[in-house]
Amino acid sequence: MFKNEIEILKQKIELLIKENKKDIIIVAIDGMTGSGKSTLAKELAEIYNSPIFQADDYFLPPELRTEERLNEPGGNIHYEKMKKEIIDILVKAKINDIIKYKPFCCKIQKYGDEKSLTVNKVNIVEGSYCLNPYFGKYYDFCVFLKINDKEQIERLTKRCPQMINNFINKWIPLEKKYHDAYKLYDNCDIKFDY
């Protein structure tokens, strides 16, 4: 699906590997919901046998969803927990280190079973809110996926028709607020527009 995009990312990764400046490489993929972030991450991960650390595993639990927190750009994920359990460990990790954490499960509205991911040469952090400035610049390069509004609604309707009103009235506006507040599109190294 992302043949051209994968080639661009491979060139960037291969250059970083050739420069051999770091033991591991971290790629961050953020962008609009429905733009293909997860699909792009999976395709890239298949090439490099990369673990994918997903921001979706850190949705904010109900007890922390205060009005003040949800008014904060990017505040609807538990970014403190994600930084502590993923980002802080990943930036110091070596190949074959194991990172363990319990992802938040939206269906049951609490943390689920433990997940273990093995650090490799190329590692991917993916999902809306994974470029929250709270994390600092932990990545070697970042990617932003942008999609036009019409295509976004069509994809989300096809993917999850019972939730489309929630996307339109709640999740898309929160995401847009986050993108605009931190000028993510302008500040990403690689951008793909659809």
Brief overview, please?
With 194 residues, the chain is of the alpha/beta class.
Can you list the strand order of the major beta sheet? Answer: 2-7-1-8-9
CATH third-tier fold name: Rossmann fold
Number of helices: 7
Based on secondary structure, the structural category is alpha/beta
What is the CATH C level class, in words?
A: Alpha Beta
Relative helix content? 40-55%
Computed CA radius of gyration, to the nearest angstrom: 16 Å
Sequence stretches where pLDDT stays below 50 over 5 or more residues: none
Total domains: 1
- Specify the overall morphology: globular
Distance between the termini: 12 Å
Q: Main beta sheet, described? A: 5 strands, parallel
What is the architecture at the second tier of CATH? Answer: 3-Layer(aba) Sandwich
CATH homologous superfamily (4th level) name: P-loop containing nucleotide triphosphate hydrolases
Description:
- This protein is α/β, with parallel strands linked by helices and 194 residues long.
- The protein has one domain (3-193): P-loop containing nucleotide triphosphate hydrolases (Rossmann fold, 3-Layer(aba) Sandwich).
- The chain has seven helices and nine strands; from the N terminus they run H-E-H-E-H-H-E-E-E-E-E-E-H-H-H-E.
- It has helices spanning 3-19, 37-48, 67-70, 79-90, 149-159, 164-182, 184-187, and strands spanning 25-31, 52-54, 98-101, 104-105, 110-111, 115-118, 122-126, 141-146, 190-193.
- The strands form three sheets. A five-stranded parallel sheet has the order 2-7-1-8-9, covered by helices on one side.
- A hairpin with a 4-residue loop joins strand 4 (104-105) and strand 5 (110-111).
- The longest helix is centred in the C-terminal third of the chain and has 19 residues, at 164-182.
- The two termini are 12 Å apart.
- The model has no long low-confidence stretch (mean pLDDT 94).
